[in-house]
Amino acid sequence: MPAIAVEGLERAFDEVLAVQGVDLTVEEGEIYGFLGPNGAGKTTTVRMLTTLLLPTGGSATVAGHDVVREARAVRASIGVALQEAALDPLMTGRELIRLQATLQGLPSTEGKRRADSLLERVDLAKAADRRVGGYSGGMKRRLDLAAALVHEPSVLFLDEPTTGLDPVSRKTIWEEVRELNDAGTTVFLTTQYLEEADQLADNVAIIDSGRIVAEGTPDSLKTEFGNPHIQLQIAAGSIADAERACAEIGRLLPPKDGKLIEIEAENGAADIPRVVRALDEAGIAVESLELVRPTLDDVFVAKTGYHLEDESEAADEEAVEA
Amino acid sequence: MSAIAVNARVVAALGMRSIRQTFRRPQLIAPIIVFPTLLLAIQTGGAGGAVELPGFPPVQSFLQFMLAGAMMQSLMLAGNSGGIALAVDIEMGFTDRLFTAPIPRFAIVLGRLAGTAALGLFASCWFLAIGLIFGAHIEGGVAGALLAMALVTTAALAVGGIGAAIALRTGSASVVQGLFPLVLVVLFLSTAFFPQELMIEPAKTIAEYNPLSFVVEGVREPIIAGINAGDTAAAVATIAGIFALGLVLSGRALRHRLRSG
Question: Taking the model in full, what pTM does it have?
Answer without folding.
Answer: 0.80
